[in-house]
Amino acid sequence: MKKDKDKNKNEVNADVISGRNPVSEAIRSNRPIDKILVARGEKSGAVIGIIAKARDRQIPIKEVDRTKLDYISGNSAHQGIAAFAAAKDYSTVDEILEYAQSRGEAPFIIVLDELEDPHNLGAIIRTAECAGVHGIIIPKRRSASLSYTVAKASAGAIEYMRVARVTNISGLIDSLKDKGIWVYGADMNGTDYEKCDFSGACAIVIGNEGKGISRLVRDKCDVIVSLPMKGKINSLNASVAAGILMYKAMKNR
Q1: Helices 118-131 and 238-252: crossing angle, nearest 10°?
Q2: How do the pLDDT tens digits run along the chain, 253 residues long?
């Protein structure tokens, strides 16, 4: 039992960079970083300088209790700061669209609205790669990111899938619609997915595991699409629902 706990702890810490110099060097070398955690109340000059550099690169920064830094750093000398390194560089939305164009195909995009479980994100990346998706878009905050756990759950598909991060999902949807991309939101009380035609340029929005897609994002979608439910519970796992919709779209395309 202890061996399993140690293994889980190693997985949690696999993508953590602890300490002022290591974090500073990671930023300077342009290593992909998901976010930086700073001890609450930390005011040393070195940490303030690191935060300034991180903001220049638009890396999310969050203040946390020192006990959290102790845990994620495995009680190493974190000096009040730690960073979560990404397993892969992020793409941009434009790069995703350019990739679709280079293949002579209408864009096929998955948008994730605050999906938090890294195993779900990894599974979606894996299915998306198999289904011919051109790219996945996630928010910079309140979302699973390209961590070690996600890379492992994707079974290698992370190396082939373009993943972009944006500040605002509802603003992104407006931008996609302006480019002629039809946006489908997966939620309850929508059109049966079997009656939807995903053959053109499309983006499928998958929401948070518990809350689903937010009201604002739901209102921005062109079509709300639903999966029929015949059991006693009214929702599927996010990655399972995404997989069904991706393969329906692949069939239409």
Answers
A1: 10
A2: 344 444 334 344 558 888 899 999 989 888 889 889 999 988 788 889 999 999 998 888 999 999 999 888 887 788 899 998 888 889 999 999 999 999 999 999 999 999 999 999 999 999 999 999 999 999 988 899 998 889 999 999 999 999 999 999 999 999 999 999 999 999 988 999 999 999 999 999 999 998 999 999 999 999 999 998 887 777 789 999 999 999 999 999 8
DSSP string, 80-99: TEEEEE-SS--B-HHHHHHH
Q: Please state, in angstroms and rounded to a whole number, the distance separating the CA atoms of residues 36 and 118.
A: 18
Run of H or E residues at 224: strand 223-226
Q: Which long-range contacts (CB under 8 A, 24 or more apart) does 102-106 make?
A: 103/134, 105/132, 105/134, 105/253, 106/199, 106/200, 106/201, 106/202, 106/253
Which residues does residue 37 pair with via DSSP β-bridges, in sequence order?
A: 62, 82
Q: What 3-state DSSP class applies to 136? A: strand
Show the tokens assigned to 36: 């930086």
Question: What percent of the residues of the chain are helix, what percent strand, and what percent coil, each to the nearest 5?
Answer: 40, 20, 35
Q: What angle do CA 87, 63, 4 make, to 5 degrees?
A: 50
Gyration radius (Cα) of the chain, Å: 19
Continuous H helices in 88-231: 93-102, 118-131, 148-153, 169-178, 215-220
Angle CA 112–113–116, to nearest 5: 85
User: C-alpha distances in angstroms, 12 versus 46, 64, 71, 93, 175?
Assistant: 26, 17, 10, 29, 35
What SS3 state is found at 114?
A: coil
